[in-house]
Write a structure and sequence with these properties.
10 helices; transport; binds adenosine-5'-triphosphate; phosphate transmembrane transporter activity; PstB-like
Length: 272
């Protein structure tokens, strides 16, 4: 069988496993989701750990985006959506009636497929979330903006152009501004929906390196069509097919010794 070896171009080896077991950041139990009659997610069980990069892979239409948009309840913007089951974020069910969606979204940032900065200055893009949360003090905002841009590995490139429109920089830089904008609210989790699919290879590599850095402080869940990318940057991989999780394991295992024939067929390029 042809397999993709999990070559670590970004870092040569994974950090040593800690002695204590990692905590769950998201525990999904028997999640089902329907768009009207379309049963898009079927009995999903996934235990996603903190300070790991979890990759969601699978062919087009298998439910990857739907799943990560369920994690921050963005999917509820589609009126026909119905769900059953539970998603525990830090042990609280996000579907509980008294769980405010705004509260959840202060903990969970999201980065989309196409860089989507606001038509504002670089500074105002990053300061946007903190301002919404009531921070007005210029010195504090300056500090947050610098820290977030440094965290997104783009400070040096934009520090002299903070007042320029975010559209004036390259797509790869815009994507890092979007990551900085997500970091500015000090999230716990960052959801990434194919964040490099619109980027050139060098910008892609920068984002991949950044993801490796960010997992020290955040938990990252990334949807990707790019299996080499999943193999390079993730700790765990979930393979979705037709709305089901077929296999979820250490990335090394998924790419070198999957237990399900369908996973093997997918990663060796036989379909999808
Ligand atoms: N708003 C919607 N209304 C109805 N059906 C939808 C909606 N969004 C997605 N679907 C359907 O749900 C299924 C899962 O879609 P989803 O976008 O989650 O897949 P995906 O794995 O992310 O696909 P891709 O890799 O192409 O982005 C598909 O059959 C899709 O057509």
């Amino acid at each position: 069988m042809t397999t993709i070896s999990p070559v670590k171009t970004v870092k040569e080896s994974k950090p040593k496993e800690q002695n204590s077991p990692k905590k769950s950041v998201y525990l999904t139990k028997q999640l089902n989701l329907w768009y009207g009659d379309k049963h898009a997610l079927k009995n999903i069980d996934l235990d996603i750990k903190e300070h790991e990069v979890t990759a969601i892979i699978g062919p087009s239409g298998c439910g990857k985006s739907t799943y990560i948009k369920t994690l921050n309840r963005m999917v509820e913007l589609v009126p026909s959506v119905k769900t059953s089951g539970e998603i525990l974020y830090r042990e609280r069910n996000i579907f509980d009636a008294n769980y405010g969606v705004e509260e959840l979204r202060t903990k969970v940032g999201m980065v989309f497929q196409k860089p989507n900065p606001f038509p504002k200055s670089i500074y105002d893009n990053v300061a946007y979330g903190p301002r919404i949360h009531g921070i007005k003090n210029k010195k504090i905002l300056d500090e947050i903006v610098e820290k977030s841009l440094r965290g997104a590995a783009i400070w040096d490139e934009v520090k002299d152009r903070l007042n320029e429109n975010a559209y004036s920089i390259s797509g790869g830089q815009q994507q890092r501004i979007c990551i900085a904008r997500a970091l500015a609210i000090e999230p716990d989790v960052i959801l990434m929906d194919e964040p490099t699919s619109a980027l050139d290879p060098i910008s892609t590599l920068k984002i991949e390196e950044l993801v490796q850095e960010l997992k020290k402080d955040y938990s990252i869940i990334i949807v990707t069509h790019n299996m080499q990318q999943a193999a390079r940057i993730s700790d765990k991989t979930a393979f979705f097919l037709n709305g089901e999780v077929i296999e979820y394991d250490d990335t090394d295992v998924i790419f070198s010794n999957p237990s399900d024939k369908r996973t093997e067929d997918y990663i060796s390029g036989r379909f999808g």
